[in-house]
Amino acid sequence: MKTVECQDLTKRYFRKPVLKQLSFSLEEMKITGLIGRNGAGKTTLLKMIAGFIKETSGELKVFSQRPFNSLNVSANTIFVDDQMSFPPAMQLYELLEVSSKFYPNWDMDLAQGLFDYFSFDPKNYHKRLSKGKKSTFNALVGIASRAPLTIFDEPTTGMDTAVRKDFYRALLKDYLAYPRTIILSSHHLEEIEDLLEDILLLNDGRVKLHMPMEDFKEWAIALKGPADLVLALAKERELIFKNNLGTNSVYAVMKNDFVQDELMQAKAKGIEISSVQPSDLCVYLTSSAKAKEGIDHVFAQR
Amino acid sequence: MVAIIFNTDGTKPIYIQIAEWLETEIMNGHFKADEKVYSQYQLAEMYTINPATAAKGLNLLADENILYKKRGLGMFVTANAKEKIINKRKNQTLKGLIEDVVLEAKRLQISKEELVGMIKEIEIWEGDQ
Q1: How far is B128 from chain A (nearest CA, A)?
Q2: Which of A27, A196, A226, A251 has the most crowded Cβ, counting Cβ within 10 A?
Q3: Which H, E and C letters describe chain A, residue by residue?
Q4: Could you give the ipTM of this predicted complex?
Q5: B1 to chain A: which residues are within 8 Å by CB?
């Protein structure tokens, strides 16, 4: 079963295209990480999936329905970000009570447990919370709602390291107990990569990659060594990133379609072989053509 | 698969770490033949990882006949799991490490005899005898 499906999905703001003919689908009960640079279109996509904004063209289906103006999609979806709005006159404990009426799967025990753990004051107001505390409260609502489609758009903005860790662990534990479809967007892939089953990488309004996270971790390989040797190997492959080290050494990241023997030979010739951190790989894959050689390129031209 | 043995940056993929940890648990007798090991969900909880990643670690051991699946019940330790683990570690892990050592020795122009001498000098051998 697919929870989200889209075909040639396009969104323009005042004629400026933000999302360009996206086609992909998200399977139910999976945790998918939505990754992309600033302005890649992540938030626009998530808001469209949640039914907050209308597509310009193409087709989008969530639970087999067009999400915009759909009560069914709204009832089964929660969208968590740092701008979540709650009734300003209500105290925090009242917000929990209202939430329990809004979301049929709401778990009040869990909500209370997290509320106490993160030491919220029941009589406080949402608008008086600090940035990090606001995010924590929103994330709490996101977990406790147990919505069949749970969307977190940069949920950890402002949270300190300890809270971020706790949040991810709480999310995973509750997911293991109550599987649901989760979309998680973040700039910090290294923080969420272990949690993800799939990765969806957006670049400049298009889908750059969509694959299981485990495959992505081995999708590319880094070779470091004498430039002529490394570049000869890179020639036959998709070169993703290159950085010159000294005058005749090079670090090159390329698609990993080597067979074991080739790597053995490369290693014997003095080439160092290593895996590529998924977060680094995302940066390389979403760099503009100019930036392919890294920030050093700017300095080299002066 | 290829990248595993060649991982020189010291960080092994988590599913490998899980497989190796389970191997160690089998080696030191924590799990005996025909006993059930942790499920993908238990491992996911223990390591704070996606259950799909944990499943990959379990499947790796199943592919190597160190574990076997009982449909609907989970993963169990095979009768000769210990032997398989020792063989694998000897023929892959240890061999790989030795290859690295030999390569480095070549780079430093150390002779075979000298290298063997260095290995013999390592003190932990003494304790074994």
Answers
A1: 33
A2: A196
A3: CEEEEEEEEEEEECCEEEEEEEEEEEECCCEEEEEECCCCCHHHHHHHHCCCCCCCEEEEEECCECCCCCHHHHHHEEEECCCCCCCCCCEHHHHHHHHHHHCCCCCHHHHHHHHHHCCCCCCCEHHHCCHHHHHHHHHHHHHHCCCCEEEEECCCCCCCHHHHHHHHHHHHHHHHHCCCEEEEECCCHHHHHHHCCEEEEEECCEEEEEEEHHHHHCCEEEEEEEHHHHHHHHHCCCEEEEEEECCCEEEEEEECCCCHHHHHHHHHCCCEEEECCHHHHHHHHCCCHHHHHCCHHHHHCC
A4: 0.87
A5: 218
